[in-house]
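To: structure desk
From: M.T.
Subject: fold request, one chain
Message: Could you run this one when you get a chance? Sequence is below, nothing fancy, just the single chain.
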Amino acid sequence: MEDQIGKMEREKRRDRILSALGAGNEPQSAGALGDRFGVSRQVIVQDIALLRAAGVPIVSTNRGYILASRRQAARIFKVRHTEAEVGEELELIVSLGGVVKNVFVNHRVYGHIEAELNIETRVHAAEFVRSLGGASRPLMLVTEGYHYHTVVAPDEETLDRIGFALKERGFLVEQ
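Reply: Done. Structure tokens follow.
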């Protein structure tokens, strides 16, 4: 009987975690969710893993967890620019309605190397650029500036506008 009560409490907490993630647009850290629900950060991490295993589209970012966007259209853009232009590229994409899901390179020795980004706003882009300070450097440097982004948007027309703007700026690499 006590185990049944514990199971119901865990399921109720997972439902509350989903509600919390769905209530806002900002990522929520495991620590903050743990404080909110009176459990440890590790319990939240385990709950998130179980929710993901059940098919819930939860994405982890460097700022916390979010529910995956319901956006329909996605496109991979091959781009090249300098390290100093990283922020400009990201801001261009999000200002036109895109979300930069990831960055990846195809290295001749190491193969496919990918990092999840989930940059949705200019604020997120600025935070990302700030995080590259010091010893952290952009992944694109291992392939002389060439890299790819998966970008999602509400529709194909938005992706077309993003592609056109990247081309106009000289960032888009014709494939």
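Reply (cont.): The CA atoms of residues 27 and 64 lie 5 Å apart. Let me know if you need anything else for the meeting.
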